[in-house]
Automatic annotation (TrEMBL), chain A:
It comes from the Bacteria. The keyword Cell membrane applies. Pfam families: BPD_transp_1, BPD_transp_1_N. The chain crosses the membrane at residues 102-124, 145-165, 177-197, 238-264, 284-310. Keywords: Cell membrane, Membrane, Transmembrane, Transmembrane helix, Transport. The keyword Cell membrane applies. Residues 98-303 form the ABC transmembrane type-1 domain. It is a multi-pass membrane protein. Belongs to the binding-protein-dependent transport system permease family. It is found in: Cell membrane. This is ABC transporter permease.
Automatic annotation (TrEMBL), chain B:
The keyword Magnesium does not apply. The lineage of its organism: Bacteria, Pseudomonadati, Pseudomonadota, Alphaproteobacteria, Rhodobacterales. It is found in: Periplasm. The keyword Ribosomal protein does not apply. Keywords: Signal, Transport. InterPro entries: Peptide/Ni-bd, SBP_5, SBP_5_dom, TAT_signal, TAT_signal_bac_arc. NCBIfam families: TAT_signal_seq. This is ABC transporter substrate-binding protein. Residues 100-447 form the Solute-binding protein family domain. Belongs to the bacterial solute-binding protein 5 family. Pfam families: SBP_bac_5. It comes from the Bacteria.
Length: 318, 529
């Protein structure tokens, strides 16, 4: 087996193992909460008899390891169970909302990742001069704003002062692609503002780091233009750190944007999770927790793999 | 009529100019206040309902955990959803009287222990079935079952026997209750085919709109029920509720025209929103109130002097001004206000009196250690600030209060009804009996002040079966006085429902029974082209 393939397979296997450990942690964590699910459903007015009946019908009398494997088996076969609070099928509800989450994250990533890298390259090219200072200044101020402040500002500017967008970003099945894009415009703008600086600064720092190397000096002495030196000689060697910070931000765009979702009324996974945590709807909390963990682990594996593939020393080990 | 007056009249009828402003400007044109008022009310009546379009409400108070099962409705959006697709036996109208809906006639025996409801003929459910007396009985029975977890369990528990015969439903009560028809207007008691026993969350009812899409916590879409029996409701072709819990986004959605009406306007921005073009603020004094509750059976609140010292040490007018932005009225330490039938307005208003409070505090013999008042941002809007104001006004009377801010999560299970002194709120009930029975009867589940008074209980039960309004009013007055002077309730303020709508919305009528015209705003309003 090619060593690189071996490394990749190893990473993926490790990731799956990690996910299994996370599933166990999530299950144990929700088990450890005071009171059981039956009590959570029936609330304060629960009679002992009703509790016993409900425990029986939910299968809560079985030992917890049996329930863990039943739960895991259900999830592996795509059965997440039903929400305790309103009896809706969790898999179906999550499917739709996960789609919305990914749509928003993709839109934000498609704009922010190329933009951040480009700005990073430009900032590195003009290191210490005014373009660098303007780019860093602006992006650092947008990342320093709390998300909801940025969101309110964008709402005020683009729905009241210049009314070109709608403040509430809900999307529904049956909406055209164009309508969806229009609906998510404002949250996308906010998310771009929020994630831009981190990726831009990392790109700039990684490039500047590489620029210290002797071979860059050689390239410069050959008489190559500065942008060409950065793009062809420095950038390929700076990919690994850039990719890992990009992926970190992508993961954030998927699992960490609940505040933005709430402000714009965007019906995605974060809002769904928070609502069900408040109502102690544990099957939903477990399912969403597992999905978030899977996204996070998956993206990190991806970052590792890209870093390996991009690194000639790992690609051609001695 | 001159053109200017005509123009102003149209603006006032559409809610763009307040009544007071209209009367003022009309008098500048030489028209007396009485004439101006008369002109205005006929202009409002003359507004013709416009059919068609899509009417949208943006609402706070919805979660992705909500269900279409009417028994489970507990927050604002499910309430509005119930009132849009559902129909009850009766409604309570804006004047506090009974409006007949599925029932078209109600009669009772002399001691109010047996009630007969005649079911309106030819009312159809959304699935085409006719509403029968059996459906009504099955619905009420489902709510008496503990398993249904119905919010109306306490209401239907007192019914000992229900029977359906032809088009007549007979309800026998364990003890007389003159208010029974009001209780049947509860928003959980939506009549469902077969009582909704097979599938409580099917969303099939007899209301003015049919459920088209139900996405809890996101939106609820309805289309007009073409077979609805009452032509005064159901004007728009379709109606939608968008769940927008964020205050700023909700307001912005209204201003941008994405929705036509919103609930829960933040008192802090009312003045700003008033100036916005095409928007009017609608507010109506409701029965909801914000409270601080003391457990009468726990030290130091088991001391009546201390309780009354605290009641005197709160500055009610300041609370109304600062917490409600003036959109509310002062409370008087009993849970009833003028929005209730049989309210006694002669009971003197309790004022802030630091000197009297200090004296009573001294008389109570309290050791001077800080009294802990628990609150949370979610106890009621502005609850933390209200507790701090209370702390300041009490300090001026020499009473040391310590405000402890608790997290919202778990507040209603870990603090309310558990800790001896905390902030809370009540939504109010259609009649006095129901409010008192829910929270002030010695044996009530939600007796959150642990108030036990034999004379009060005795009056409550006697008043319930008393059909003579004058005698009943006297009993309620005595109960109010007992609670005011002996109870553990500090009720500084009654909050108004403050809502906002766009100018194209027609048919808006203030209704003190609940938010957004008692949940019927989408069914009763229309869109002016």
């Amino acid at each position: 087996m090619h060593p690189i393939l071996k490394l990749v397979v190893q990473r993926i296997a490790l990731g799956l193992l990690l996910l299994l450990a996370v599933s166990l942690l999530i299950f144990l964590g929700t088990e450890a909460l005071p009171g059981d699910v039956a009590q959570a459903i029936l609330g304060q007015s629960a009679t002992p008899e009703a509790l016993a009946n409900l425990r029986e019908s939910l299968g809560l009398n079985q030992p917890s390891y049996v329930r863990y494997f039943q739960w895991l088996g259900g999830i592996l076969t795509g059965d997440f169970g039903v929400a305790l609070t309103n009896g809706q099928d969790i898999g179906q509800a999550i499917g739709q909302r996960l789609g919305n989450t990914l749509f928003l994250a993709t839109c934000a990533a498609v704009i922010s990742v190329p933009l951040a890298i480009l700005l990073g390259l430009v900032a590195a090219r003009y290191n210490g001069r005014w373009p660098d200072k303007v780019i860093s200044g602006v992006t650092l101020s947008t990342i320093s704003l709390p998300e909801f402040v940025a969101a309110y500002f964008v709402i005020f500017l683009l729905t009241q002062v210049i009314p070109i967008f709608q403040p509430v970003a809900m999307v529904f099945p049956g909406m055209s692609f164009w309508d969806r894009l229009q609906a998510v415009a404002l949250p996308v703008i906010v998310l771009v503002l929020v994630v831009l600086a981190h990726m831009m600064r990392m790109t700039r720092a990684a490039i500047l780091n590489v620029m210290q190397s002797a071979y860059i000096e050689t390239a410069e002495l050959k008489g190559l233009s500065p942008m060409r030196v950065i793009w062809q000689h420095a950038f390929p060697n700076a990919i690994a750190p850039i990719v890992s910070v990009v992926v970190l931000n992508l993961a954030y765009l998927v699992v960490g944007v609940v505040v933005v979702e709430v402000v714009f009324g965007y019906n995605a996974l974060g809002q769904y999770l928070v609502d069900h945590v408040a109502k102690r709807d544990l099957p939903v909390v477990q399912a969403v927790g597992l999905i978030f963990a899977a996204v996070y682990i998956g993206l990190n594996i991806l970052a590792d793999v890209i870093a390996i593939v991009a690194n000639p020393r790992l690609r051609h080990p001695k | 009529m001159n053109a200017e007056l005509d123009y102003m009249l149209k603006r006032a009828a559409r809610g763009l100019m307040s009544r007071r402003e209209f009367v003022g400007r009309a008098s500048a044109l030489g028209i007396t206040a009485a004439t101006a008022n008369m002109l205005l009310s006929s202009a409002a009546r003359a507004q013709e309902a416009v059919k068609g379009g899509t009417l949208r409400a943006g609402m706070a108070g919805g979660e992705s955990t909500n269900s279409l099962d009417p028994a489970l409705a507990a927050s604002e959006v499910p309430f509005m959803v119930n009132m849009t697709w559902g129909e009850m036996l009766v409604d309570v109208n804006a004047k506090g009287e009974i409006d007949y809906r599925i029932a078209e006639e109600i009669s009772a025996n002399a001691d109010a222990t047996e009630w007969k409801f005649k079911i309106r003929a030819g009312v159809e459910f959304h699935d085409g079935k006719t509403v029968t007396a059996e459906d009504v009985v099955a619905t009420l029975k489902r709510h008496t079952d503990e398993k249904s977890q119905s919010g109306a369990l306490g209401i239907v528990q007192g019914i000992s026997e229900m029977t359906a015969e032809g088009d007549m439903v007979t309800l026998k009560l364990a003890s007389g209750n003159a208010d029974l028809p009001f209780l049947m207007a509860d928003y959980h008691l939506v009549i469902q085919p077969g009582g909704g026993v097979d599938n409580p969350a099917a969303g099939i009812g007899a209301g003015p709109y049919k459920v088209v899409a139900n996405e809890p916590g996101v939106r609820h879409v309805f289309e007009r029920n073409p077979n609805y029996f009452d032509s005064t409701m159901g004007h728009a072709d379709s109606v939608e509720i968008l769940v927008i819990n964020d205050n700023t986004a909700r307001t912005a959605a209204l201003q941008a025209g994405q929705v036509h009406m919103i609930n829960r306007v933040d008192p802090k921005i009312i003045e700003l929103l008033k100036g916005a073009p095409g928007i009017s603020i609608e507010h109506v004094a409701g029965r909801g109130h914000y409270v601080f509750i003391m457990h009468c059976d726990k030290a130091p609140f088991d001391n009546k002097d201390l309780r009354n010292a605290l009641k005197l040490a709160i500055n009610r007018q300041e609370m109304v001004d600062k917490i409600l932005g003036g959109y509310g009225s002062r409370g008087n330490d009993f849970p009833i206000n003028a929005a209730y039938p049989l309210f006694d307005d002669s009971i003197p208003q309790r004022e802030y009196d630091a000197a009297a409070a200090a004296e009573l505090y001294k008389a109570s013999g309290h050791d001077g250690s800080p009294i802990i008042l628990r609150t949370a941002p979610g106890a009621f809007p502005g609850a933390v600030e209200a507790a701090q104001l209370f702390q300041q006004s009490a300090a001026a009377a020499g009473i040391p209060l310590e405000v402890k801010v608790e997290p919202d999560d778990g507040y209603w299970s870990n603090v309310w009804n558990v800790e001896p002194f905390c902030a809370s709120y009540w939504g109010g009930r259609p009649v006095q009996d129901q409010m008192y029975s829910t929270a002030y009867l010695s044996t009530a589940d939600w007796n959150d002040t642990k108030f036990k008074n034999a004379r009060f209980d005795e009056l409550l039960v006697a008043a319930r079966a008393e059909l003579d309004a004058e005698k009943r009013k006297g009993m309620y007055s005595e109960m109010a006085n007992i609670l005011r002077d002996e109870g553990g309730l500090i009720c500084p303020m009654f909050n108004d429902f403050v809502e906002a709508k766009r100018e194209e919305v027609g048919g808006w009528q203030p209704d003190p029974n609940g938010e957004l015209m008692n949940g019927r705003a989408l069914a009763k309003c229309w869109l002016n082209a």
